[in-house]
Every structure is written in C-alpha cells, then in structure tokens.
From TrEMBL:
Reaction(s) this enzyme catalyzes, per UniProt: dTDP-alpha-D-glucose = dTDP-4-dehydro-6-deoxy-alpha-D-glucose + H2O
Superkingdom of the source species: Bacteria
EC annotation from Swiss-Prot or TrEMBL: 4.2.1.46
Any GO molecular function: dTDP-glucose 4,6-dehydratase activity
Gene3D superfamilies, per the entry: NAD(P)-binding Rossmann-like Domain, UDP-galactose 4-epimerase, domain 1
UniProt KW keywords: Lyase, NAD
Coiled-coil stretches: none
UniProt key word Lyase: yes
Residue ranges of domain NAD(P)-binding in the record: 5-302
InterPro entries found in the cross-reference section: dTDP_Gluc_deHydtase, NAD(P)-bd_dom, NAD(P)-bd_dom_sf
GO biological process: nucleotide-sugar metabolic process
Name under which the protein is recorded: dTDP-glucose 4,6-dehydratase
Signal peptide (from-to): none
Organism per entry: Crystallibacter crystallopoietes
Length: 332
C-alpha cells in the first residue's frame, strides 16, 4: 500500500495515527475531516507536504468520498462523533456520521475494491461487573449502552455485512480508552488536567468507581498499522494495554502529580446509563500479529500528557470555556 485515506485525521486518535504512519513508513496520507468542534487542523501541523494532504469534507458526502476513495489504496476510518455525554444530549449527529457516514465509505470502498480498516471501540460490548474475571474478546456479544456506543456497534455490523455479502477486504479494531496529547478537553483526563491548570476542582461522575482500561494513543496507532498491514481480512482485533484503573484513582493521581492535595476534587451528578467497567483481552492481537504496547506505563504516560497540556495551552484554551459551560448546564 502506498496511499492511505484517513478519515477523522484531525481528531485526537486520527492525528496520532497520521503522524505514526508518516514517521514509520513511506506511505502518502490524505486526511478527510469535516473539522467539527472536535477537529483541529493544528494537530496536523509540520507534516511533510510531499506525503501529506488535508481535505476538509464530510464522510456523508458521497461525491467527495467516492473521489478520494477511488484515488487511494486503503481507507482507515476514524471519523466519528465520539463523546458519550454529547450523544445523550443530541443523538442525531451520531446516527448521521457514525452510521450513514460509515455506510457511505463502505459503498465507495466496495465500488472501487479498496482495503478498509474500521476503527471502533470496546464500548460496543457494554460493561462488566467490577469483579468479573472475564474481559472483552472478539467473541463477546454486542450490548451497547449509549447512543454513541450503539451507533458504533451499528457501524461495526455494517462492516461485517459488507465483508460477508460483498467480499469487502475489511478488518475491524475495537480499542479501549485512549489518552495522550491532542485530546479534546471535553474528555476525562484532559478535562481534569486543564481544570487543575485553571484552578477549578476536578469533577468525578458519581462515586468514581467506574473502571476504564487506559491505553496511550501511540500504542493504539501502532496496533492499527499492524492490523492494516498484517491482519486477516474479515477479522476483528481488540486493542488494549492491560491499563484498568478506576476514575477516582486517576483523578487523585492527576492531582498529586500536579502538586495538589489528592482529595481536591468534587463528586458531581452521574452520567445516565454510565458503563461500570471496560476491560480488553488483546491476546489475539498479541499472539497472531506479534503486537506489543510500548507505552504501557500509565504513570509516566500521564506525566508526559500533563506536561503536554501545560506546554500547549494555545491548542486547548479556545475550547475550554464553552466545554465547561456545557457541563455546568448538565450539573457536571
Ligand atoms: P475525536 O472526536 O477527537 O475526533 C473525531 C474527528 O472526526 C474530528 O476531527 C472530527 O472533525 C471528525 N469528524 C466528525 N464527523 C465527521 C464527518 N461527518 N466527516 C468527516 N469528519 C468528521 O475522536 P477520537 O477520540 O479521536 O476518536 C476517533 C475514532 O476512534 C472514533 O471512531 C472513536 O469511536 C474511536 N475510538 C476512540 C477511543 C477513545 O478513547 N477516544 C477509543 C476507541 C475507539
Ligand atoms: O472505551 C473507549 C471510549 O472511551 C471511546 O469509544 C470514546 O470515544 C471515548 O470518549 C471514551 O469514552 P468514555 O465515556 O469512557 O470517556 P470519557 O473521557 O467521557 O469518560 C471517561 C470516564 O470518566 C467515564 O467513566 C466518565 C468519567 N468522567 C468523565 C468526565 C468528562 C468523569 O468522572 N468526569 C468527567 O468530567
């Protein structure tokens, strides 16, 4: 493969993948991104002009999608509405982008017979009890909880159907919670880091016992490239780095690392339908494709993420006030 089309490449994880591909391969990358409130072209600053191109556009727009898909070797599909809290306020953009957008891309990939990799989430599997010894695998039944996760589950099922019915050359990956630089301040870790920088007490939903399985975005990117290059067509690979932590521990760690008292946070009203625990078993990816996580030390990844938000206030500052105003209206 020489040319990649990356949808959603101006978002948190998509931009990380674009940098990873340009740094580690000789491939050419075109990004298709609508630049919603979550997209930021400056996350793609400084990339080599001769191998990188940015196109602003909507994955629901069949004309632009077909033109770009016809001119690529493979599509890596990151574009999505990605935030659970937003999906509880207004589900429609999630249906439009995550379902119709994925359909539009699949049809173009089918027509032009292109390799397709679909980026998805562990949230399609619902949640686990805190003491459940089992973790999610690609055989776990789908059981999504929120409008966001149900649209991601829908998009996964579309990809599976296009593989089986039309022979599309596709793979799927379902990853756990990512953290790292360039993540929007609406999300848990950057929200709390930027709150501490602003002298605002971090906000913990409910009791804070909810567990997320953290992985550094750099490890997600290396896993996706591995699957794109070596994954078996039609297969689903779960991506995770054995990073389970409850939210309370993460908030306390952020406060301590930033020189504040560990108990300097507030409990706020819980998210409706809040999933209790996610946990990924990534044995298939590790055994079959030989992938390993290189950034699995959460404390050092968190320290460098805190450092990045301290040093890159110009990147996140424009979103901060509007994001907090939205949360305030929800009592969170
Ligand atoms: P993000 O919200 O930071 O970025 C999404 C990007 O998609 C933005 O640049 C946005 O402008 C773009 N976009 C949205 N609608 C579009 C449309 N209609 N057409 C073109 N571009 C559009 O999201 P993220 O956290 O980087 O997540 C990227 C993907 O990874 C999503 O598919 C998400 O479901 C998946 N994922 C995320 C995580 C995580 O922890 N963040 C974990 C597993 C999977
Ligand atoms: O598991 C993968 C998913 O991880 C991705 O598919 C989603 O796109 C991504 O947004 C993320 O979903 P979560 O809902 O888990 O992430 P979020 O950052 O919104 O919240 C993480 C946890 O922190 C969750 O239990 C809710 C809690 N939380 C969140 C915020 C914003 C708080 O306690 N306080 C907060 O202020």
């Amino acid at each position: 493969m020489k040319k990649l089309l990356v949808t959603g490449g101006a978002g948190f994880i998509g931009s990380n993948f674009v940098r990873h591909v340009l740094d580690n391969t000789d491939q050419h990358v075109t990004v298709l991104d609508k630049l919603t409130y979550a997209g930021n072209e400056t996350s793609l600053g400084g990339l080599p002009d001769e191998r990188f191109r940015f196109v602003q556009g909507d994955i629901v727009d069949a004309a632009i999608v077909e033109k770009l898909v016809s001119d690529t070797d493979a599509v890596v599909h990151y574009a999505a509405e990605s935030h659970n809290d937003n999906s509880l306020q207004d589900p429609w953009p999630f249906l439009e982008t995550n379902i119709i957008g994925t359909y539009t891309l699949l049809e173009a990939a089918r027509k032009h017979n292109k390799r397709f990799h679909h980026i998805s989430t562990d949230e399609v599997y619902g949640d686990l009890e805190l003491d459940d010894p089992e973790r999610f695998t690609d055989l776990t039944p789908y059981n999504p909880s929120s409008p966001y996760s149900s649209t991601k589950a829908s998009s996964d099922l579309l990809v599976r159907a296009w593989v089986r019915s039309f022979g599309l050359q596709a793979t799927i990956s379902n990853c756990s919670n990512n953290y790292g630089p360039y993540q929007h301040v609406e999300k848990f870790i950057p929200r709390q880091i930027s709150n501490v920088i602003d002298g605002i007490r971090p906000k913990l939903y409910g009791s804070g016992e909810n567990v997320r399985d953290w992985i550094h975005a750099n490890d997600h990117s290396s896993a996706v490239l591995t699957i794109l290059e070596h994954g078996r067509i039609g297969e689903t690979y779960l991506i995770g780095a054995d990073g389970e932590k409850n939210n309370k521990d993460v908030v306390e760690l952020i406060l301590t690392m930033m020189g504040e008292p560990a108990d300097g946070y507030d409990h706020v009203v819980d998210r409706p339908g809040h999933d209790l625990r996610y946990a990924i078993d990534s044995t298939k990816l590790r055994r079959e494709l030989g992938w390993t996580a290189k950034f699995a030390d959460f404390e050092s990844g968190l320290a460098s993420t805190i450092e990045w938000y301290r040093n890159n206030e110009a990147w996140w500052r424009p979103q901060k006030a509007a994001t907090e105003a939205k949360y305030l209206a929800l009592g969170r």
